[in-house]
Amino acid sequence: MSDTINVALPKGRLGERVYRIFEESGLGCPGVTDPSTRRLIFENPGAGVCYFWVKPSDVAIYVERGAADIGVAGKDILLEYSPEVYELMDLRIGKCRMCVAAKKGYHDSTARTLRVATKFPAIATDYYRSLSRSIDIIKLNGSIELAPILGLSDVIVDIVETGSTLRENDLEVITTITDISARLIANKASTKFKADGISRLVLALKDRKGSI
């Protein structure tokens, strides 16, 4: 159906929480949360919605390219990749922080280039550029906390939720760059051609957001 709203949901607890709100608002689809199914797409023509699960970091790509009309992505993804999408609302869930962290007692010396290990090179670069600080980005894909412990980097830029991993490894937050939470995003063309349907879903989320 041309007026069906295609929704990209991030796999995991965050997507399940958001889907539950849609479901409670009468916009559910049978089988979406069935762990035994191998189906990839779930449609409910009567409700005018179609859901599919994707890797969290891929949601913005599906929305930007128009494969999905709306989706749910973390603010970290939006800041790191700057996709051409509209940010419709802050869902105020999946809250955490993007932080700079280092070994306890670390003191920065501006006399030399700062070595920064991170999964978010764009965010780190933008932050240190705002401070006019010379840095060397070390792009890692996992176990970021190891970098300063083993002397690979001076600091890390990473997402911090509770801070327990940092504390267990004798690291500490130096500064918070920005707060992070889940955002409802939309394809720019879809907000024009499917405005009514998207508005309906946004209102459903706003009405039920308190129970997310």
The topology string of helices and strands comes to EHEEHEHEEEHEHEHEEHH
Walk across the major sheet and give the strand order: 2-3-1-4-11-5
CATH topology of the largest domain: D-Maltodextrin-Binding Protein, domain 2
* Oligomeric composition of the shown chains: single chain
Extended strand count: 11
**Distance between the first and last residues' Cα:** 29 Å
> What structural category do the secondary elements indicate?
alpha/beta
Strand content: 25-35%
Summarize the biggest pleated sheet.
6 strands, mixed
Task: Give the proportion of residues in helices.
Answer: 25-40%
Fourth-level CATH superfamily of the largest domain:
Periplasmic binding protein-like II
The pLDDT mean sits at 93
Q: If you compute it from the alpha carbons, what radius of gyration comes out, rounded to the nearest whole angstrom?
A: 20 Å
Write structural notes for this entry.
The two termini are 29 Å apart. The chain has helices at 13-24, 59-64, 75-81, 121-130, 146-149, 164-168, 190-193, 195-208, and strands spanning 5-10, 41-44, 49-54, 70-74, 85-90, 96-103, 114-118, 135-139, 155-160, 171-180, 182-187. The chain has a six-stranded mixed beta sheet. Helices cover 29% and strands 32% of the residues. Pathway: Amino-acid biosynthesis; L-histidine biosynthesis; L-histidine from 5-phospho-alpha-D-ribose 1-diphosphate: step 1/9. Belongs to the ATP phosphoribosyltransferase family. Short subfamily.
